[in-house]
Amino acid sequence: MSKFNVLHHELVPEHYLVEEKDEAAILKKLHTEKGMLPHINVTDPAIKALMEIHGDIGPNRIIKIVRKNPNVGITEYYRVTTSEVLK
């Protein structure tokens, strides 16, 4: 039985690991700081799938999420990885 990659499911939006060199530009564009971004846990299935592509993704990395909606179009969201238990 093959392992299922959650990123290939039609209901899961596209997830991308932002290069560290590009993080400052994104934060400037959003007029925010990394600590103000919503969190996504490193145990999230989408992050685990990204780890198979990029290797270990530790805490405090920015993830770009691209959602496609027929009514709104394409929207980009950003999350910062965390290893803390989210409540």
From TrEMBL:
It holds the Pfam family RNA_pol_Rpb5_C. InterPro entries: RNA_pol_subH/Rpb5_C, RPB5-like_sf. Residues 4-80 form the RNA polymerase subunit H/Rpb5 C-terminal domain. Keywords: DNA-directed RNA polymerase, Transcription. One of its GO terms (biological process) is DNA-templated transcription. Signal peptide: none annotated. One of its GO terms (molecular function) is DNA binding. SUPFAM superfamilies: RPB5-like RNA polymerase subunit (SSF55287). GO terms for cellular component: DNA-directed RNA polymerase complex. The keyword Transcription applies. It comes from the Archaea. This is DNA-directed RNA polymerase subunit H. It comes from Cuniculiplasma divulgatum.
